[in-house]
Write a structure and sequence with these properties.
Chains A, B: It is a multi-pass membrane protein. Two copies of one chain form a homodimer. Chain A is mainly α and 638 residues long. Among the domains of chain A are: 131-490, Na+/H+ antiporter like fold (Up-down Bundle); 520-552, no CATH class. Chain A contains 25 helices and three strands. In chain A, strands 2-3 form a two-stranded antiparallel ribbon. In chain A, a hairpin with a 2-residue loop joins strand 2 and strand 3. The radius of gyration of chain A is 26 Å and the shape is globular.
Chain lengths: 638, 638
């Protein structure tokens, strides 16, 4: 370690005046460039590069420029000082240098091997912002939006399959990836690439769990634009939303409970502790997220002040995330279910103005956050200072990711098809296999801890896999759709009606249709419709008619006057589900004051957006709600 | 300086999992509390505490709790280490402590006297966030919103007076405050309170300039709610918006060009350099802000994708701020005029959906940012670690601020009344005098640099003055209005018509009415209407009719096809101004799909909002646009 004495002035003259402005400007510039590119592509119906891919590309170029054009002006680079007086690192260090006291803030512990010449490049440092910003600020709006825009009708029809893919599939994917990576790590040890640092099986599992978070934002955007078969869309969308949550909790559980004593043997106690931990964290986060969502009930008469309402809505949803994180639970899961619950109950209590405001606000925040993250991923390839690219590990990861995806989709689809009336077609399975893109969540999980060498290898590898999947798989979506002959230009409404008709023609037993929606959820839905909705919102049947006789004083108190009009039909849950959705959708459509192209435009721009379901009403409503009617080029690919 | 060796572990177990979440949660919690309080107050028509005052109060309580409940767990507090090897502080310090390398990031240079026991309280440290966050993230949306919601009609009618108050008045206020403070500083030196640190005249002027930024957000909110006389409202609103910009540039100029050699003598060269600097920075920032605003012209056909449009709009406006800061200009001025220009030109090019989205987005961001800042101000009283409260200085500042405001308002009003047809009434002058609240901008300017003792005294004093003015003056607005017998419950439209009628009755010469709007701006307005509007937007007369004959090929190319319908009436600028406003307002109203109370609610909530002008159309439009019609309690106070 050198002991150089250099005279460097930290504060330049302008320091006071543009702290942080340049870095933010760079991001703004990249985002503006991205938006203009998207616009150009959309205008020319060019679908091989999605906005996120574009953002990543621009980030990459900018990172290259920053790294090699802005020279490290700080001569202190890589100099390590000995401070004999200190025995450990305090969070704030006051240092007396030539009779001036300087305050230094603890950033991180770094390994000796990480000390390099780029360490002191102030620009690189500023551009690599704190991972906690990802988790606390950029990720919540994306996940919340996914939950908030999740439309229940198609989702619940495929709920069993979605849950299977999300829970069982992610677990399979995690374990398969872990095992394959462990094989590759063993191979690396064998050829001597891994002599200086250790790589345990739990590390491999950790990598497996973070790589199991799929994020097919590109694919879904294209599906949406082309109106691909609704079942396929819903399966993919539902899987990707829940799968993020599962992967995050899995990563969390693995990182906490790894058997420290002998990391390579299987420790049954630790394993079951991990499983228990997983279930506990998942349930806790779910409960916390949902409980935050029901704060804004029909009794808070905030409707008169839409600004306050929107503000409260926004802050409560964010608080759901933050509280869960602060309590040691998983914020992402909390905010996801907060979004779902908000959409289900709170949304009905909002004033029409607030309904629109919140929808647009979250849509906008989702759009910005997503593009910032993808820009940042591009930047990180060159600005992150401690990359370790190991070719064998990267190759192994590439193989593992595909094998894991395959062993998730194909076997599970086979078993699901045994129970499903509406089979998941082989080509759909191929498409789902192909749509295993990795994105923001995998990246965020990987960047959270890059202190040790195994974690740095994982981070660099995860980053490359994100690039690869977004550009190659994302870009190949349209050709793949054509090649697999998957229907495009499907009107989701007609599609459903047609299916229902064909079913009722071939099978007159109504119960079959019922069994097709998840039976467990039908019970829940009935309970929800009879008790929760009337309690928490102004809709649904009056509690006086659903609760037993002896509860009637309480029931009368809790029932909204407007609920009495809507009397309960006896137990027909299919009717309830459809009717419920219909009411909501019509309400939504009535408050979207935009002409046809605009609405479509916004859908195209946001990827996971689901507004087109505003059009899913019964036939009689179709004349009124025609803002999707002018959808261009039907069946252009099929 | 002690040389203790303590063993402190920086990273607790949960460190990895809730970085930053707790601090954000505290802010969220405070904001939720504030919103609920506002709602309660609004419901009970309680006007003595505005939302900003409430936010400050909650922040104060929370700050108290954080300071005295969370004990400083870090034993290293106030320990200064000697590092003999270093001669200056590098931006990143790598320190080898017991064979582990820790990375420390440069935070600031601190004076020896600032080293105290609270230095190491991690919680306090985390809550006092970087001043650059104020400047780069929280302030821009507030200022932009002020510019964007600035309605031209009343503003231009009072333009001369507003400019006089904003430029001349702020300069007077700055100098008067500076002189009075210099007197108090001399007195402090006399009684021996100022022996250890120096306080120059330029420091006093600096304090004067930062205390000249008035922010009557509370007063304006109440004015809006009660429909106080429009002229008074416009004068105050216009003054406060421009005055922030002037005060910021003034502070900047003073902080750069202080005669370093002998700070107490008057240096004519440095003075004129400062004046030149002021003008240069102001003009440069103005130009930069406006140039960013015209990017989204009618030729960028982004209307089909409202999400992209909104995104681009947002990013461009923010970039105006950041570019100006990065270029050494003043971002606030740039973003203010960017907002004004966006509202004037770009707004007309937006799709109807985007018009609403941008309005609501900026309204929401303004609301959040404002409340965060006021919460933070409350927090800062207890969490900021280097307060210096000097009673004499604080008393001096209180006196200075009032004397300065008086010597701004009364003499200038006197001179303005010499030229104005519509005199500024004596009671109006008292009300303006009374509305000299200090807020976010003064605080942000003061917190930007708290390195030296004079700056710390200024910061602590500025903070107390903000508290005092917001709570005492803000709370006293309603009684003051009643006491000064100022008209409330005025319909802005009727008001204007009545005034116009009384004028045309007493004076048939049309030119007098014309002369009342600033004559300089009438020339500009004509130019704008004839050339700029047709060039940049789809409205206005076609360029083919306004440009000379020989330009016609270019003119035809640049004119929007929709412009040909609107032929130029010959030179009647009054008609143009009114007509222009009318078109805009009707357009706006037509796209606000909210019922009566909602719209009013949002106005009340945002303070500086100006939506009610959407109703300022001619009589014939009044039947259609009745969303303000149900305004409660007219003339309740008069």
């Amino acid at each position: 370690m050198e002991k150089l004495k250099k005279y460097v002035s930290v504060k330049d003259e302008d320091h006071f005046y543009h702290q942080g402005a340049v870095e933010l400007l760079i991001f703004n510039f990249l985002l503006i460039l991205t938006i203009l590119t998207i616009w150009l592509f959309k205008n020319h119906r060019f679908r091989f590069l999605h906005e996120t891919g574009g953002a990543m590309l621009y980030g990459l170029v900018m990172g290259l420029v920053i790294r090699y054009v802005t020279k490290s002006a700080d001569v202190e680079s890589g100099t390590v000082y000995e401070c004999e007086e200190l025995k450990s690192g305090p969070s704030t260090l006051l240092i007396n240098i030539t009779n001036q006291v300087y305050e230094y803030q603890y950033k991180r512990e770094i390994n000796h091997h990480n000390v390099n010449g780029h360490q002191g490049n102030a620009m690189l440092q500023k551009m690599t912002f704190d991972p906690s910003i990802f988790f606390n600020i950029l990720l919540p709006p994306i996940i919340f939006h996914a939950g908030y825009s999740l439309k229940k009708r198609h989702f619940f029809r495929n709920l069993g399959s979605i849950l299977t893919y999300a829970f069982l599939g992610t677990a399979i994917s995690c374990i398969v990836t872990g095992l394959i990576m462990y094989g590759f790590v063993k191979a690396m040890v064998h050829i001597g690439q891994l002599n200086q640092w250790e790589f345990h099986f739990t590390d491999c599992l950790f990598f497996g769990s973070l790589m199991s978070a799929t994020d097919p934002v590109t694919v879904l955007a294209i599906f949406h634009e082309l109106n691909v078969d609704t079942d396929l869309y819903t399966l993919l969308f539902g899987e990707s939303v829940l799968n993020d949550a599962v992967a995050i909790v899995l990563t969390h559980s693995i990182s906490i409970y790894s058997p420290k004593e002998n990391p390579n043997t299987f420790d049954a106690a630790a394993f079951f502790q991990s499983v228990g931990n997983f279930l506990g964290i998942f349930a806790g986060s779910f409960a916390m997220g949902s409980s935050y969502a029901v704060h804004l009930t029909k009794f808070t008469k905030l409707c008169e002040f839409p600004m306050l309402e929107t503000g409260l809505f926004f802050l409560l949803s964010w608080s759901a995330f933050l509280s869960a994180e602060a309590a040691g639970l998983t914020g992402i899961v909390a905010v996801l279910f907060c979004g779902v619950t908000q959409a289900h109950y709170t949304y009905n209590n909002l004033s029409p103005d607030s309904k629109m405001r919140t929808k647009q606000l979250f849509e906008f925040m989702n759009f910005l956050a997503e593009n910032v993250i993808f820009c940042y991923m591009g930047l990180a390839l060159f600005t992150f200072q401690n990359h370790i690219f190991n070719p064998l590990f990267i190759f192994g990861a590439l193989v593992a990711v595909f094998v894991a995806r395959a062993s998730n989709i194909y076997p599970l689809s086979f078993f699901l098809n045994l129970g499903r009336k509406q089979k998941i077609h082989r080509n759909f399975q191929h498409m789902m296999m192909f749509s295993g893109l990795r994105g923001a969540v995998a990246f965020a999980l990987a960047i959270r801890d890059t202190g040790t060498q195994p974690r740095q290898v994982m981070f660099s590898t995860a980053l490359l896999l994100v690039f690869f999947t977004v550009w190659v798989l994302g870009g190949g979506t349209t050709p793949m759709l054509a090649w697999l002959q998957i229907r495009v230009g499907v009107d989701p409404d007609e599609d459903l009606t047609a299916k229902a008709a064909s079913q009722s023609a071939s099978n007159l037993d109504k119960n079959t249709t019922k069994a097709e929606s998840a039976w467990l959820f039908r019970i829940w839905y009935g309970f929800d419709h009879k008790y929760l909705k009337p309690l928490l919102t102004h809709t649904g049947p009056p509690l006086t008619s659903t609760l037993p006789e002896w509860c009637s004083p309480v029931a009368r108190l809790l029932t909204s006057p407007s609920a009495y009009g809507d009397q309960l039909k006896d137990g027909d849950t299919v009717y309830i589900i459809n009717n419920d959705e219909l009411t909501e959708n019509c309400e939504l459509s009535a408050h979207v004051p935009v002409p046809a192209q605009d609405s479509t435009g916004s859908i195209q721009a946001t990827g996971k957006e689901d507004i087109q379901e505003g059009d899913l009403g019964l036939g009689s409503y179709k004349l009124q709600l025609q803002h999707i009617a002018s959808q261009p080029q039907k069946n252009s690919l099929a």
